[in-house]
Specification:
The protein is mostly helical. Helix content is 71%, strand content 0%. α3 packs across α6. The C terminus is likely disordered.
Length: 293
């Protein structure tokens, strides 16, 4: 038993040295959010839209008057807050991930194109990057949603245009630096096409920096989705998202504050966890860093 305990302590010490406590907790939280997003339909068989006006505004179980039938209470229509929270996490995480991948695809494509062209096309791309960085994205999103209406696909694609300019600027700089390295020169000299050079040789070597940029962009997209849904221009009923839950609960903040505080806490912890992981990955990817967090 003593040997097993010593071995377990050594393993735990190695884990804590590799992953600081804050990073470990952040990974654990994101893992829980991922499991909920993937298995929300299998966690419960109940309908999240089912209403029971006789049970409206029930408090959570940890407050006086709460019970385990509704562990996180009910909303103004008697819908179970816990069930709505599960499906809201899935919706917000799905939108955030898809939008971040869209932004990464746009940024990588335009960044590599600018690095390869080195001419008038590069200047046009740089002007687009500067214009995107200068215009407040929230105003653009409000205008697009007000003019074209709203559906889930349009909303997700629209959020995909947030943050691409930072990824494009990063990829352009990394690609210009990598194109002067010996391996890219050798591949180019044996007749490889530009697409093959960038896709199979440069992209794998800059992937770590791009992943870090994506992890730093993801919490901002989640917060942007939350803001637009709070204003009623994001996810529309019968779907539910974290921002949608906060928006519908604002009228009940005095009588039922848990309706607003619970999804707000999930939003804050999710964004904070992703930011902690992104900062940790950036420190590990930085050659000048000693790997400490």
């Amino acid at each position: 038993m003593a040997m097993v305990s010593a071995r377990s302590a050594l393993t735990w010490r190695r884990v804590t040295q590799r992953f600081p406590a804050s990073v470990f907790v952040a990974f654990l939280w994101i893992a829980v959010m991922g499991v909920i997003a993937l298995l929300a339909n299998h966690i419960t068989v109940f309908d999240i839209a089912a209403t029971d006006l006789r049970a409206r505004l029930r408090p959570p179980v940890f407050l006086a008057g709460g019970d385990w039938n509704h562990p996180l209470g009910t909303d103004q229509l008697g819908r179970d807050t816990f069930l709505r929270l599960l499906f809201s996490i899935r919706t917000s995480m799905t939108i955030g991930l898809i939008s971040t991948f869209i932004a990464a695809a746009i940024g990588i494509g335009l960044g590599f194109l600018a690095a390869h062209s080195r001419g008038r096309l590069e200047q046009v791309i740089l002007m687009l990057i500067d214009a995107q960085a200068a215009i407040p994205f929230m105003i653009v999103a409000l205008a697009v949603l007000a003019f074209f209406g709203n559906n889930l696909v349009l909303f997700t694609v629209l959020l995909g245009f947030y943050g691409w300019e930072r990824i494009a600027r990063l990829c352009r700089g990394l690609a210009m630096s990598a194109s002067e390295q010996g391996y890219t020169i050798a591949v180019r000299d044996i007749g490889a096409s530009p697409v093959r050079v960038y896709a199979l040789h440069i992209l794998p070597n800059v992937a770590s920096s791009v992943i870090v940029a994506m992890t730093l962009n993801l919490p901002e997209v989640i917060l942007l989705e939350t803001s637009l849904s709070f204003l009623g221009l994001g996810v529309q009923p019968p779907l539910s998202s974290l921002g949608n839950m906060v928006g519908t609960a604002r009228d009940y903040i005095e009588g039922a504050p848990w309706l607003l505080l619970i999804p707000s806490a999930v939003i804050m912890l999710t964004a904070l966890s992703i930011s902690i992981i992104g900062d940790w990955l950036r420190d590990r990817a930085d050659p000048a860093s000693d790997g400490a967090y």
